[in-house]
Amino acid sequence: MPTHEKNGLKVWQVRETKAQLIRWGAWLIGLAIFIFAWKEISDNTLWFMMDNVGEVVADIAGRATPPAWSFILELGGPIWDTLAIATLGTFFSLIMAVPVAFLAARNTTPSRVFVRPIALLIIVSTRSVNSLIWALLLVSIVGPGVLAGLIAISIRSIGFCAKLLYEAIEEINVVQVEAIKATGASRMQVMVYGIVPQIMPAFAGIAVFRWDINIRESTVLGLVGAGGIGLALQSSLNVLAWPKVSLILLVILVAVVIGEWVSAKVRGAII
Amino acid sequence: MLELQGLTKIYNTGDKALSDVTLSIPSGQVVALIGPSGAGKSTLIRCINRLVQPTSGSATIDGVNITALGAGGLRKARRKMGMIFQEYALVERLTVMENVLSGRLGYVGFFRSLFRKFPQSDVDAAYRLLDRVGLLEMADKRADALSGGQRQRVGICRALIQDPSLLLVDEPTASLDPKTSRQIMRLIVELCSERGLAAIINIHDVALAQMYVQRVVGLKLGEVVFDGGPNDLTPAVLTDIYGEEDWEATIEKVDDEDEDT
Fold first, then answer.
1. Alpha helices, DSSP H only, in B81-147?
2. Which of A126, A219, B57, B159 would disulfide-bridge A158, Cβ 3.0–4.6 Å?
3. Tens digit of pLDDT for each residue in A79-99?
């Protein structure tokens, strides 16, 4: 008990003494692991490589400036591809994520024993593999290009969207659903009237949030040949065309900033 | 009209919420169901429209045994039972009109309801009801923009547009101030008599129940311990239902108000 008698006074502390000691012990162990890991990293670092870090950075920066502005006209196509991959990828992933979310949510799944585990497996497996890895796989399956990137982004986003959406479904107000059931509505009608209106804000928020993430992810897909501006980045890096590289990075930065701005605006409007 | 025969509900946790409730309610009668929290009042009305599945016993409405119905039959039976909730249970992000029309879901097909293409007769009925409860100009507002009393009126419209023969009312006034509570109770009772509806009203406020209903049923630990007129509620009866307390003030207040009206 946190409360105990001492000299006739009721002393209260937030935890029992024993629980408190265990907590301090856990912190101590955590600190020890951190220091040990720090030392391991330090021992395995080639510190002499660091001697001229400043010079190397200055050298690359010098080569990379000024950016090759004339090259920008050639980037219109690739950045358009990147945005298209992000947008369509988000769209297709949502189409697949919605049914998965309804199958995964405890209160809407047809069967907790059979269907729900399958839905959860889809969520975990699509989430656990990075989109770059999906893209690598898909480039070898469907060949290099925008399509591989699009499919990679779509698959990768299913788990993310379905997970957030099924959590939103599980948090709905059940009394509103009961009220619709009580009118004699069918299962589908209960979904359309009782559940969907309640999860719409969450759905819209998830959609723009994932779109924002996908813009960032799709900029690198080209590194493995899956289309978009990453492809241009890759070819410029290969020939050490630093002015082009810096321009591409700038373009990516602008695209990401615009994406974040749009998604913040949309989310603000919903909430 | 409504016959409950040995209705029993035991929850998975082993809690016996209702034990062997037998009750008969004729057409057009408004019954108040009183009892302490946890006595099984909500469970009882939810067993009637099977939002809660009774463990045993039967509920029969106009000769139809609700407890034995399959999914399709149950939906048809639910159309004839309007339900009104404590926290209004409106779908907050839909408009008032959509909420009222959702009472017709049992009658229209899926695609019509998906695209909100309700028959004109339903729309007419919705406007009539909203006008009756004084919310006509609110039809296109979102439900979450309304006050508590207004939301409960929308809840009443949603139940009535079903064209029910029985109203199941779960603590209609528990979230409302005393004045609004009386208005809502009066409205429910008036509408029941206008349309000849039977109603079961779960209510905590004994005085309020006495003012408006013809019959009071007392529930204690899932069993019916009182069944009589509102004036038969003596301190002894209330002590039996709720436990020892000074009940004189509760009942006196009602007598005063009866004289006023």
1. 96-101, 110-114, 120-132
2. A126
3. 898 999 999 999 999 999 999
Cβ contact, residue pair A186, B75, below 8 Å: yes
Nearest C-alpha in B relative to A182: B78
Range in A131-145, A247-261, B241-255 the model is least confident about: B241-255
Decide if A9 touches B, using CB distance below 8 A. Answer: no
- Please tell me the predicted confidence (pLDDT) of residue A91: 95
Confidence class of residue A271 from pLDDT cuts 50, 70 and 90?
A: low
As a whole number, mean pLDDT of residues A208-222 equals 89
- Tell whether the model's pLDDT for residue B258 goes beyond 60: no
| 3-state SS assignment for residue B243 | coil
- pLDDT > 90: percent of chain A: 43
The nearest CA of chain B is from the CA of A154 a distance in Å of 28
Q: What is the pLDDT of residue B46?
A: 93
Please indicate whether, in this complex, the C-beta atoms of B90 and A178 are within 8 angstroms of each other: no
Q: What CA–CA distances, in Å, run from A25 to A31, A82, B112?
A: 10, 50, 64
Is A184 in the B-facing interface, judged by CB distances under 8 Å?
A: yes
Answer yes or no: do B105 and A175 touch at CB < 8 A: no
* Domain spans, chain A: 3-45, 73-270
Q: Do A197 and B94 touch (CB under 8 A)?
A: yes
Question: A187: which residues sit within 8 A by CB, 6+ positions away?
Answer: none
- Which domains does chain B possess? 28-50+71-216+227-260 (3.40.50.300)
Q: What ipTM was assigned to the predicted interfaces of this complex?
A: 0.89
Strand order in the sheet with B16-25: B16-25, B2-10, B56-61, B64-65
pLDDT-derived band at A156, boundaries 50, 70, 90: very high
Which class is A73-270 in CATH? mainly alpha
Q: Pick A178's closest partner by Cβ from B51, B104, B162.
A: B51
A125 in Cβ contact with A93 (< 8 Å) = no
Tokens of B208: 């309020």
**Any idea which residue has 């249970």 for tokens?**
B89
- Asked whether residue A143 carries a pLDDT value surpassing 60, the answer given is yes
For chain B, say whether A197 makes contact (Cβ under 8 Å): yes
Which residue on chain B is closest to A181 by alpha carbon? B51
Measured between beta carbons, which residues in chain B are less than 8 angstroms from residue A184? 75-79, 105-107, 162
